[in-house]
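A brief tutorial aside. Many learners find it easier to grasp structure tokens once they have seen a single protein encoded end to end. The record that follows does exactly this for L domain-like protein. Read the sequence first, then the structure, and try to relate runs of similar tokens to stretches of the chain.
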Amino acid sequence: MTTLRYLNSNSLTGTVPTELGELTAMTYMNLQSNSLTGTVPTELGELTAMQNMNLYTNSLTGTVPTELGELTAMQNMYLNFNSLTGTVPTELGELTAMQNMDLNSNSLTGTVPTELGELAAMQNMNLNSNSLTGTVPTELGELTAMQHMDLSSNSLTGTVPTELGELTAMQHMYLTSNSLTGTVPRELGELTAMTLMDPNSNSLTGTVPTELGELTAMQHMYLNSNSLTGTVPTELGELTAMQNMNLYLNSLTGTVPTELGELTAMQNMDVSYNNGLCGTIPENVEVSSTAGTSLNQDCPITGEPTTSGPTGIPTMPPSTSSPTASPSHSPTASATTINQTNAYQQCQAAKATCTS
């Protein structure tokens, strides 16, 4: 037997049989979307011809077996939407034929292994919605075939590596809802194939790099819910494909550039809850919310801060059923509360500056 394709999306229960490890000619295993329990058998590490392993959307527990690092023919591995624990095995860095790896929505801990930087064929990597800690490895900048990377909704710290600017095939980059610090690297302006960039809900500081104006394929840019300062770059007016731009809940100042009025594809732009944006909204820009800025010469909160968040926050493009799709992301109520409090305090002072 070389394939086990048609057992997915049933109501199978029980465990994954260890005996499957004897099917050494197997290249394709599809047990996804069942109600399987127990652990991922270590015996699956004997399936050295395996190219596609789909075990996602079950109730599997235990760790990701280190033995899976023996499957050097593996191209696609989907273990997402289970209840797996433990760390991401460093041995997975041996799977140099891997193109798609999805471990999202488990309970994995530990760091993102630097060894993953050796997976030169990798196109889609989803490690989001776990409890990973540590930094984003600089070695990921060596994955030059990467098109989609999702590290969101973990507890990652440190800075966004400048090396990610080497990923010139990148189309979607999610770093949302971590504890990243430092600046938005200007090197990201080299990723001219990127259509979606989402580092929202971190603690990023510094200015919005002018180099982002070179991302002419960009459609969705979410820089909201950070601590960015400075002005909105006029260079963003070069992003003619832009549909959704979120800059809310930062500390941006100055005026909204008139150049943004040239972005005729824009559907939603949210610049609310900054501390000193002044002036008027450029013509032809459809704005989902300006509450909390000095653009309307009013401060959003007259009493205690609420947790309702900015009005009109656009949602991200909906997820698909693809194993590599990522869920929508939005700032948490607690983060919104903190930033709203800051916005109210800062807006009072900013009004005087904007009207002077």
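Self-check: The chain has one helix and 15 strands. If you spotted this yourself, you are ready for the next section.
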